[in-house]
């Protein structure tokens, strides 16, 4: 699906390489300022970079903006609307790259993100967690092959954190791909197929949750002693 080779952004990311297959979800973890958001923005074609990013056989720099937007969807860390739009209007904006208002795609996204009860309301009158789910529905409405999500559960309560992670996991399983930046290491261990642990703009560790989420790796990156028990349900990852 996507292959990243020697990605470099001056003073922000240094020589990152990895690949993701269709059907997988990758969690990008690490301390604040480690380069997680920068990585997602570069994969979406927003930031200029050195190196090669190949998506479904195409260099993303050779793709037109519309072609790229149809296949790669980005859910940014913070989403705001300059106008007092309805929830329905916000979700329908996800169809802009396709130039249509496919009702099936829109209603499927509304149900996936769990925002049907919010229909008819203005997005600027919603709570932060409700707005986050509406913007997730917008990205889902575009039906991208690759969904990039920057901390999509940061403003959600416990119920919706798990709900959104389930949605993203099922989305990836449908022969698509999901890459998300996430701070909750327990949920990352539970839902992600692969993890990328970043530190100072570099990949400190890459692989399965069992490979990446070790006490040695996390203690080194977060600079605190860390206790890890991945056999617990849910996995326990906490500072000592």
Observed structural traits:
240 residues; alpha/beta; Rossmann fold; 27% strand
Description:
- With 240 residues, the protein is of the alpha/beta class.
- 40% of the residues are buried.
- The mean pLDDT is 92.
- It has nine helices and twelve strands.
- It has helices spanning 36-43, 65-71, 87-92, 103-113, 128-141, 158-173, 185-191, 209-212, 215-222, and strands at residues 2-9, 13-20, 24-29, 50-55, 58-59, 72-75, 146-150, 177-181, 194-199, 202-207, 226-229, 236-239.
- 34% of the residues lie in helices and 27% in strands.
- A hairpin with a 2-residue loop joins strand 4 and strand 5 (58-59).
- Helix 4 (103-113) runs antiparallel to helix 5.
- The radius of gyration is 18 Å and the shape is globular.
- It has one domain (2-239): P-loop containing nucleotide triphosphate hydrolases (Rossmann fold).
- The strands form three sheets. A six-stranded mixed sheet has the order 6-7-8-3-9-10, with helices on both faces. It has a four-stranded antiparallel sheet with strand order 2-1-4-5, covered by helices on one side. A two-stranded antiparallel ribbon has the order 11-12.
List strands and helices in order, with pairings:
Blueprint (H helix, E strand, L loop, with lengths): L1 E8 L3 E8 L3 E6 L6 H8 L6 E6 L2 E2 L5 H7 E4 L11 H6 L10 H11 L14 H14 L4 E5 L7 H16 L3 E5 L3 H7 L2 E6 L2 E6 L1 H4 L2 H8 L3 E4 L6 E4 L1
Helix pairs in contact: 4-5
């Amino acid at each position: 699906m996507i292959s990243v080779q020697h990605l470099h952004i001056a003073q922000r990311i240094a020589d990152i390489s990895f690949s993701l297959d269709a059907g997988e979800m990758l969690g990008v973890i690490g301390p604040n300022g480690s380069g997680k958001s920068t990585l997602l923005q570069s994969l979406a074609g927003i930031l200029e970079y050195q190196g090669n990013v190949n998506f479904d056989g195409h260099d993303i720099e050779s793709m037109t903006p519309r072609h790229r937007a149809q296949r790669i969807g980005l859910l940014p860390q913070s989403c705001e609307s300059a106008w007092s739009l309805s929830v329905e209007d916000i979700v329908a904006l996800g169809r802009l790259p396709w130039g249509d208002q496919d009702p099936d795609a829109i209603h499927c996204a509304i149900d996936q993100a769990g925002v049907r009860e919010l229909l008819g309301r203005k997005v600027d009158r919603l709570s932060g967690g409700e707005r986050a789910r509406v913007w997730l529905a917008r990205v889902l409405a575009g039906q991208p092959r690759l969904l990039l999500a920057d901390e999509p559960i940061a403003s959600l309560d416990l119920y919706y954190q798990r709900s959104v992670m389930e949605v993203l996991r099922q989305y990836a399983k449908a022969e698509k791909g999901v890459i998300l930046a996430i701070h909750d290491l327990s949920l990352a261990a539970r839902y992600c197929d692969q993890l990328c642990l970043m530190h100072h703009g570099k990949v400190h560790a890459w692989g399965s949750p069992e490979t990446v989420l070790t006490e040695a790796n996390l203690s080194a990156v977060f600079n605190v002693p860390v206790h890890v028990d991945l056999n617990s349900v849910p996995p326990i990852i906490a500072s000592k």
